[in-house]
Design goal:
CATH topology: Rossmann fold
Strand content: 15-25%
Radius of gyration: 18 Å
Number of helices: 10
Helix content: 25-40%
Strand order of the largest sheet: 5-3-2-6-9-10-1-11
Order of helices and strands: EHEHHEEHEHEEEHEHEHHEH
CATH architecture: 3-Layer(aba) Sandwich
Length: 269
Amino acid sequence: MRTRHKPNVQVARDPEGVARGAVELFLSAARDAIRSSGRFHVAISGGHTPKRFFELLAATPDARSLAWENVHLFWVDERYVPPDSPHSNYKLAADTFLGKMGIPPDNVHRIPTEHKDINAAARAYERTIRTVFALQNKARPEFDLITLGMGADGHTGSLFPNSRAAFDADDLACAVHIPGDKLSRVTLTPSVLLAARRLVVLVCGREKAQTLRNVLRGEPDEVKYPIHVLWPALGKIIWLVDRDAAGAMQWLHGNPQLREVRTERLSRD
């Protein structure tokens, strides 16, 4: 799989800079969507990296003054646990910003993990997406923004190495069973991610530096690095990474297929 686009990599000084950059990108996408269509459809991810992003959303005056009544919030993926579980991506968002923003409860579309059957939960989530977006037949939703992360193994959402979910072309959401992992998951499928108008990938930590290098330099390999499923949409992705994840960035400067984007705003204390 080849693409004419070059990765748009923005390097922040530290995880705090990544979180600030994510807030700015979130607000920009939200304002543009609300201005053009009256609604902002966004899907967020969980995990350690976005926690500070969520906290800053709640603390930033411009974010608090956003027209949250026009925001429809979804999740990229969710562990199959109750919504009050400490492992829940929904709970992370609820604890950090949801209750402070005035978003109507009907606009919060969490993955329904209360279903006894995980496949039923995935189907129910797909029905919700189809209803909110008023989709017909096999149409895909066009999220205004999807925020993602990347694991040290190259996974994104709950699309893991050697997982069938990375190749699910039929569903909007599917169940994921991970060998050796007690927590099954529900995730959006690649076609949904690819249909988004904007994608932001947040990557922090030295432990991800080699994987990031391999992902951005190597030929796409969706089996080994499922984040490569995004390559058809590479021109819509902003990679927002900290210096530890970027390493010293020598590999970036020396590769004509890549470019580094630094902004004073992202690096500011």
